[in-house]
Amino acid sequence: MTTTLTDRPARARERLRRDAARVLLTNWTGTSTVPSHTLYPHQWSWDSAFIAIGLRHLSPRRAQRELESLVGAQWADGRIPHIVFSPRVPLDAYFPSPDFWRSSTAGRAAGAPAGTETSGIVQPPVHALAAALVHERDPATSRRRGFLERLYPRLAAWHDYLLRDRDFTGHGLASVVHPWEPGMDNSPCWDGPLRRITPAPPESFRRVDLTHGDAAARPTDLDYGRYVRLAADYRDHGYRDAGTPHPFAVEDPGFNALLIASEHALAGIAEQVGRDPRPHRERAEALTDALVRHLWQPKAGMFLCRDVRGDSVIEDRSVTGLLPLVVPSLPGHVVDALLGTVTGEHFGLGTGTRLVASYDLRGPAFDPARYWRGPAWFNINWLLERGLRLHGAASEADALRRAVLDAAGGSRFAEYVDPYTGEGHGANRFSWTAAVALDLLAGTAEEDGR
């Protein structure tokens, strides 16, 4: 039998913990943590949430600052932008850069901050869950600093924005308006909706990502041109959700599942700060009902995305359709079907692969190395480990935790890995990989102590 890192003595896990801590300390900028100094040299929204979850095991105060710095760039309409740009980083180090987004001018009517440059789109709303976990790690420091008291109104405004301004169908679900918003940028799920988009001319942008990454593992030039076109059109409409055509609009199950999980977390935060938790619990239940009613597909055994503009289900099976496992009050038959799908032929957890791939293993667009078209991602597998454990699949969760830790250490904390071989791709020493490894190691240590 092959011996894995998590079967070895505690000293091997301590070595992994030190290595993961070194990644986060190296990527810390003084106020926040970059995902990667080369490929992603600014602050990213959902990255910071996962980073804070890991940082809480090293420095709860620094984990609090990670989230505080992010929400400090929140727009007046409530949105938390997907990038907060550092003025210390040269404009040519990343594209789209601040002079493309022009948030402080183009986004003025939508409430963009005047003194901080950001992007104008968003990422998955996992922040309240992260804030709750950070508080739990050191409640005394959190209370002394007024951490939850300061974050609560901002997180509530963030959720309000999504359900007020992004419910395009009346289903009670938030829509995403750009492939970068659900976080799974290059998923095959977006191929159909993207065909409606005329790409920006190649000469109108420069792909800095190819300087630090293999072109074979990144989005194609055609897709990138479509991403740029969508972002530019949104910008030119003042980042307004009402009145903008939104040729790309999708109800994404993973995005909404994280909103539900964060609404539950926000209910707990409300209790901590002396506010009424009932509105958050009621909204979480309403969102859960809407998610099941509109995006659950029994024949697929999982949730599928809906193309809002085409008013049609997107048939591709993506890992986003498994993320509702993080929702605590799913109907039992839905949970049972999801557990079967995770381990079945399309995702193969524990049978074909040790990590859950980002896309259907049997799908026509599957590619084990190309960005979000097949590789396994560490933050997603952290969420699924949590979901499996939540719904009683403890042995599967334990195996997935071991696999995540082995792959993180074996790939030098790669951005993502081949789900079959564990070969690393993208950036090395990637922050959220190190962060979720720290969190899973902490769980292992707690079990050892029992």
TrEMBL record:
UniProt domain Mannosylglycerate hydrolase MGH1-like glycoside hydrolase: residue ranges: 40-433
One term of GO molecular function: Glc3Man9GlcNAc2 oligosaccharide glucosidase activity
GO BP annotations, alphabetical order: oligosaccharide metabolic process; protein N-linked glycosylation
Keywords: Glycosidase, Hydrolase
UniProt-listed Pfam families: MGH1-like_GH
Hydrolase found in the keyword field: yes
Keyword Metal-binding: no
InterPro entries on file: 6-hairpin_glycosidase_sf, 6hp_glycosidase-like_sf, Glycoside_hydrolase_63, MGH1-like_GH
Annotated family: Belongs to the glycosyl hydrolase 63 family.
Name by which UniProt lists this protein: Mannosylglycerate hydrolase MGH1-like glycoside hydrolase domain-containing protein
Organism: Streptomyces wuyuanensis
Lineage, opening ranks: Bacteria, Bacillati, Actinomycetota, Actinomycetes, Kitasatosporales
